[in-house]
# Entry
Amino acid sequence: MAETLDLTFKVRRFDPDSGAPTHWDDFPVKIPDHYTILDTLIDIREYHDSTLALRCSCRSAICGSCNMMVDGMARLACKTKVIDIISRSNKKVVTIEPAGNMPVIKDLVVDQAMFWERIRAVDPTITHEGMPTPEREYLAPNSAMLDLTGVMNCILCGACVSQCTVLEIEEPKAFLGPAALAKAYRFVGDPRDSAHKERLEKLSKKSGIWDCTHCFMCVEVCPKGVAPMDRILQLRDKAMEAGYQNNNGSRHSNSFAKSVKHSGRLNETQLIVESLGFFNIPDQIKFGPTGLRALMHNKMPPIMHKKIPSAKKVEVYFEKLDSGEKH
# Structure
């Protein structure tokens, strides 16, 4: 026999027609323990407040329309069971907010124009220019398609964009974002496409693959296991292999690896100079205030960078990686 959950849903509300600022409404609910967040919100709309606005459609984690913030994390409401949420926090209040990083239209409904604009920025056309014409059709090996299967599981719910910390602080929000970059990997990783270099060149520019900060939030919240950040790292590897290394991101990556390989630790002073470029004095000067604050708080890296005692062991690991040796 199903148990009953007695708790409160704290829902963030916004009605543009009323002109009132954003506020919170508390809804005491008694629900079966098998209910999802979406089941509960629909009950609230049907029996408590018919003005509550939310998006939903398939209720089967396929359409992606019910993406929202549940206890501060982007989740699909139809896939998230209430009992799982309250058991994690051991509390009787569940907070519900609209998806992040997108303007709110009303209550839990957001304007996804920014999300779709980024998705459309990725060219979905596979080109065979310069490739030999096959007798029957262009075929991709199973290994390549297995690698792309995870990316093709994306349902475009926007959870990763909602939780992206770069888009949260960046103004204007120019970063392509995790969903669009995961989609870009789907075409870069397809051996039937001949435009890899052109795609990687475009993605290596500002607001592309190097703007990701490795916060792992997109991996954490993706309901389909697409792991967008992993795809972004793969795109970086492919871009550097293709020769697109004359940018801050590539230089930063190379300088980081060189420093750790040489001394076993990061030389932060050298990292800034090499990442920005030795002759890029204007951008280096911009880091002056940061350096001053570090100095005032006794956080300034030493001028004379020294190796750690076990630096040679670290170098051995790098040599094994460079040779492709498993360890």
Remarks:
- The CA atoms of residues 219 and 230 lie 8 Å apart.
- The chain has three domains: 4-110, 116-241, 248-323.
- Residues 248-263 form the longest helix (16 residues).
